[in-house]
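RECORD TYPE: protein structure
NAME: Catalase
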Amino acid sequence: MASTILSSISDTAKSAMGSERSKKVQQLAAETKDVHDKSARITTDYGVKQTNTDDWLRVATEDKTGPSLLEDPFAREKIHRFDHERIPERVVHARGSAAFGKFTLFESASDVTSAGVLTDTSRETPVFLRFSTVLGSRGSADTVRDVRGFAVKFYTDEGNWDLVGNNIPVFFIQDAMKFPDVIHAGKPEPHNEIPQAQSAHNNFWDFQYMHPEATHMFMWAMSDRTIPRSYRMMQGFGVNTFTLINDKGERSFVKFIFTPELGVHSFVWDEALKIAGQDPDFHRKDLWTAIESGAFPKWKFGIQVIPESKENDFDFDILDATKVWPEELVPIRYIGQLELNRNPDEFFTQTEQVAFCTSHIVPGIGFSDDPLLQGRNFSYFDTQLSRLGINWQELPINRPVCPVMNHNRDGAMRHTITKGKVNYWPNRFEAAPPAKPEEGGYLDYPAKIAGIKARTRSKKFQEHINQAELFYNSMSPPEKAHMTAALGFELDHCDDPVVYERINSRLAEIDLSLAQSVAEMVGGDIPQEQKRPKHNQTAKGLSQTEYAPAEPTIATRMVAIIIADGYDAIAYNGIKAALTAAGALPFTIGVRRNKIWAAGEDKNTGKGVVPDHHLEGMRSTMFDSVFVPGGAKSIETLSKNGRAIHWVREAFGHLKAIGATGEGVKFVRDACDLPGMSFSTSGDVVDSYGVVTAAKVQPESFKEALKMAKGAKDFV
Ligand code: HDE
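PREDICTED:
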């Protein structure tokens, strides 16, 4: 679909994209070759121009093909390079896609940090952001139920700052040493490598039960957050507790949050399931095409700050990554904006080779004793070795935009050539000395530490269910219904009764009615009592319904307009123009991809319309909305077409905005007229559950319904 979207994009938008040349993009340009350069000729890797890259050098006669010669350096180089193209995929977050952008501040946080990137409001810091799924391998589908990675590399003037986050604010475990266990349990099972990119299996849920600390996170994993509509419509969270240090040397604890301008939106599960097969690259394409079309995704950047003196004021440990800091207790202070505005030039050298490390921080930012973060600081640095080799920080995408100088040397594939007689410090030349603090040198915060060396966690780390209940209580009724259904789906895929029976009993610690509904569906004893007294509290910011954009918008929403010969050209052109003007992306879906003719159009003199796709090539799941213009003959054809009826019916089932005019009204009504459904009629506009139909084009009502697309979904 990407290519079709691109062809409909204006030239202005295309040039807007090309104009984004941050310091990082300029640095990369110096390393970039253009395969479309007309003067370019195929050479070997050692630069010799080649005349033939198709035939191995061999001993042959006119009528006999003889043996190939080992001496052919061109053939051997070509095959040898191909044989070694693959590198190990990331052990987690293997499937991802990324983009360049910029980070700007609208408010300085100099009261809490000295970091230039968080205090200098005149700066534009280049960023590279990689989104990912966690469990699936590189070739798995985008829309599976999974946590999404949200890893940001800030190329700051003081060095790279990597904020390696997720779209969920908490994690499954408290101590990094448990990471191999939680990932082994989630990944395909060891005996048969089934299932791919799914948490719906025995081992995943066995782990969840065995680790009560995972309860809060698995409730998030069962919410709509794990089936996002788009990477552009997800929040990002640093999850771990970091620290900020200001010019006075005062330290505070901090959590980092990104909130999308477009609001937080999700699929319904049935859509996500179908798209995983129909278009496994759905999220990847969505991000790519939005950026190519100039609809740059934006996030507000916020911090939650707790001064060091208040570290112990909470009934949870603020270093425990299985807990959120409720906004009522620690408000979010939004201070900046992140925008993505440029797609990578090459997937492998940029999206695949980018390497993030939680240990990469800059002056003014520090770690905390969060035991998950401490272990992550070892792991990320370590894993890059097996993926990329020791000199991975020299790869173009990973290089800082500020100067790098030190006495580290050598190792496989070293690129930098460092001139000079010494490679150690101190040296008699005083060459490359450490920086003084006033020169921007990193200062470690002199934290006081005392304790007993032991494999334990503090007392407050022992409570695991309060926030799981807080999260569930804070969901809207449709979100709760979705969670119940999600648990029903997942546990249905577990065939070991001990697994689902135990989870049913764990759910009874959170909410008895939830546990009962799930047990009813998946089997096992129905829990009869609330296993832990409920606190019945709610908190703000947890339900994604709270993140509707301030200004509702249909920008970048994809609308399928279905036509057959004899369609009403006035209605068709009217809705298309109205949608385009509002920034939406209309697509024409015909009964065929060859020209379709409007009512009354003369095939000899008319132009016809070449649809973007035909009804069998796409499905309603791939669009946010469906519109059916009138035209007696067109509707007569569509009414006899099972696929056309299915398009509308399925879109209705997925609670999407559906529009129609003229004869299209009856077609839509008939297609959606499910038992028990009724439509309220006022005038000639019928508007119910996001369905807008009218005798004449009513673009305004339709656009309103489309803006409310998620609102309509809330009726489930
Ligand atoms: Fe990761 N994680 N992780 N993780 N993680 C990796 O590093 C690890 C955790 C996250 O787009 C690996 O470069 C440990 C939390 C993202 O390249 C590895 C622990 C969060 C990405 C690793 C965690 C994340 C990774 C694999 C438990 C959210 C993809 C490849 C303490 C805040 C980054 C790599 C990208 C990748 C280890 C837990 C997010 C193995 C030990 C919590 C977004 O180093």
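COMMENT: The first strand starts at residue 58 and ends at 61.
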